[in-house]
Amino acid sequence: MKDFANLIERLDTTTKTNQKVAALAEYFKEASEKDKLWTIAILSHRRPSRPVNTTLLREYAAELASIPLWLFEESYHIVGDLAESIALIVPNDQHDSKKELWEILEELIELKFKTEPEKKEYVQDRWMGLDYYSRFVFTKLITGGFRIGISQKLMTKALSQVSGIAEDELAYRLMGDWSPSSTSYEELLFGRNEQAYVSKPYPFYLAYALEDSLEQLGEVKDWSVEHKWDGIRGQVICRKGEVFIWTRGDELVTEKYPELATLKDFLPDGIVIDGELLAFTNGEIGLFSELQTRIGRKTLSKSILSKVPVIFKAYDLLEFQGKDYRKLPYLDRRKHLEKLIEETPHPALHISERFEFSSWDEVIAERELAREKRSEGLMLKRKASTYQVGRKKGDWWKWKIDPLTIDAVLTYAMRGHGRRTNLFTDYTFGLWQEKDNGSKELVTFAKAYSGLTDQEFAQVDAIIKQTTLERFGPVRSVEPTLVFELAFEGISYSSRHKSGIAVRFPRIVRWRKDKKIEDANTLEDLKALIPK
Amino acid sequence: MNRPDLLVFNAKGIYCPIAQVYIDPWKPVNRAIITHGHSDHARFGHKHYLTHHSNIPIIRHRLGQINVEGVEWGEKFQINGVTFSLHPAGHILGSSQVRVEYNGEIWVFTGDYKTEPDGICTPYESVACHTLITECTFGIPAFKWKPQEKVFDEINLWWDKNKKDGKTSVLFAYTLGKAQRILKHVDSSIGPIYTHGAVENMTDVLRPQLALPSTTQITRETINKDLRGALVIAPPSAHGSPWMRKLVPYETGTCSGWMAFRGARARRATDRGFVLSDHCDWQGLLSSIRESGAERVICTHGYTDIFSRYLREIGYQASVENTQYAGEKEETETKESA
Ligand SMILES: [Zn+2]
Ligand SMILES: [Zn+2]
């Protein structure tokens, strides 16, 4: 545990990627096989399921620190991270720092089945026994969400240096359905576990956003164009008579999409298709927000399945007849894919239509149709491109449409986290709505916090402090005086929102000092942006 | 016992109506008692300044030829029948708490303060009072300072390692206070110490009062290769400025209480964060309030709402007053304040 905590500390104390990789490689060189395996698991989001919920953790921490719960909560709000708050606030005597990482993890697996008093005793004892970083790491292992600036890509790079296995190959081996209890370090890296192999997806090839002009891509005839669909990127695998669906987040979600279960009866065995899971309501492509209503559910009722059916829109063919097709040119892979889908029509398997154009102007014109076709923009793929590993430049580009924007009025403000804790940086915005008697009122419709400079934040903060109407804990209502231009990616009707409208990824584009609050947009203006 | 308050907060600062004197006013006034030299406490434009002797060179350097009078620690002086005295606050060189007594009632304004002796300034002394006006910059239990030896061990190790890697170590610290505290305690046998002009000027002002290792100011003539392995002390505003180009290759570090937070360290975008503050941590605040014996506590800059609520829960009569003091600012800024 101490070694792993030291690793996290080293990763924390540098902002340089190559130093992070070096620290990780050094750790992999020294660590025991069991610790290595667990480290790979943790850094690829395979931690054990949460043994204690965070409400209990907060209570345990406040009790141990002899402070009222509200004071712990306020401090947590300021620190912004639960594990870090606990590491900072709870006292310790460092009596046991000798446990190995894997021992702690096995304890945490067991802990899930213990009674509440046993959980409390165990967790508080560990907290007391560990130093700052070990405690932080220990609590992170319980709560998950290890954001330490080490992507799976960097981890793979470090492991590649230690194991001698090429990065792309290693990325592939580390994917799929395994856990430290089902395999060993040796087997994961060097062996072939048949059972794990059957469900194993390929690493996704991801595109960067187009930076330069289209002309700089060369000849338009070298490029294939398709729409970038707004759903969940995934892979459908049919092997040994079974279907597996993986998301880009390396999550196995087969059970969540029963409409795709019958694919095994349609497609030949030994096949892997890259594509997008999309809501498909009333026979047309739905919005991401509709898909979201299905994602979080534990059980899928008949009514939700009929209300929000899902399709898989196929982009690419990665494996065919059990053979890895990733090194074939894109156009060849697509031809196989198109033929396959044409010959074995399945109601939930659609092809993502592909275009070839004779001028860049035609590409621009196609992008104009994106909102109408309910896509996020275009994907440009070089016809000769292989299917690569991870995010790479050169052969694939995404070219999204510009976001939707609206001018809104600031109505509530909340204190920020961390260094911005004394500043009000999280804002709620409203738009005008006309009431029956003809007067206008502001209706809340979105929250946003990014997009201002530090200097602007400070100015807005000062105005908020001067125009506060009411305080509710960290939140203040303010007299409406400020107008901001907000951008967002998607928009749809929603019964869960007061305004009746949900927007996706709202963010502040600029402070419209030139506008008075009367000049801000209305709710009607916002509704007009919803695709018909 | 319904006596009017000895000190009140008005639009210009903390005011004693009976003596007609301000403490650390933020608007120009006739008579100002100044706790310490940081720019949010010692401002320009007052007709008459009164402060501790050792603070005079500092505010003269900052504010020019002002009309200033110096007093000694604990030296009592009367204004309109009100008795005043200054007591060490342990924040930076020459920093004071202000004790105010009238008809047997005692108020103390802490100014900025810390309880841990830093080897630079006269250590903080607890002053008994009825009402304590305290800052609470770090007034939540998430702040717990390590002893400064440990922090300087970390800084020395970091410098030594950078030196071995052939790099320059650049530490960002406030020019007044933190910079001299670092100079005093780093292991100057590791290598030469260079300074940014702003740090050099302020350090020169303080040298007659402190024993500090020698430093060299970085100028146009400084040769890049001489800086390899050296320690450079610069104000936070130098971070990311063209001035840094001369120092390549370098590693950067920030010394601040805010560096206790991982998020703050990450956003600051320096390579290292060292948790070193000239303010009280949570326990420091609580113990000094306890020792003062005060029944009433007024909280100024920092986590005032949270801190005062907690004080009320544990039995104090605690309230909040808004001031224009900045606390220990975490953002990179051109204006110096702490
Ligand atoms: Zn201050
Ligand atoms: Zn100060």
Automatic annotation (TrEMBL), chain A:
Keyword Flavoprotein: no
Protein name in UniProt: DNA ligase (ATP)
Key word rRNA-binding present: no
CDD domains attached to this UniProt entry: Adenylation_DNA_ligase_Bac1, OBF_DNA_ligase_Arch_LigB
EC number(s) from the headed UniProt entry: 6.5.1.1
InterPro entries for the chain: ATP-dep_DNA_ligase (IPR050191), ATP_dep_DNA_lig_pp_1105_fam (IPR026333), DNA_ligase_ATP-dep_C (IPR012309), DNA_ligase_ATP-dep_cent (IPR012310), DNA_ligase_ATP-dep_CS (IPR016059), DNA_ligase_ATP-dep_N (IPR012308), DNA_ligase_N_sf (IPR036599), NA-bd_OB-fold (IPR012340)
Residue span, ATP-dependent DNA ligase family profile domain: 303-433
Organism of this sequence: Algoriphagus boseongensis
GO molecular function, one term: DNA binding
GO BP term (any one): cell division
Keywords: ATP-binding, Cell cycle, Cell division, DNA damage, DNA recombination, DNA repair, DNA replication, Ligase, Magnesium, Metal-binding, Nucleotide-binding
UniProtKB/TrEMBL annotation, chain B:
Annotated organism of origin: Algoriphagus boseongensis
InterPro entries: MBL, RibonucZ/Hydroxyglut_hydro, Xnuc_lig_assoc
Name of the protein this chain belongs to: Putative mRNA 3-end processing factor
Origin superkingdom: Bacteria
Gene Ontology molecular function terms on file: RNA endonuclease activity
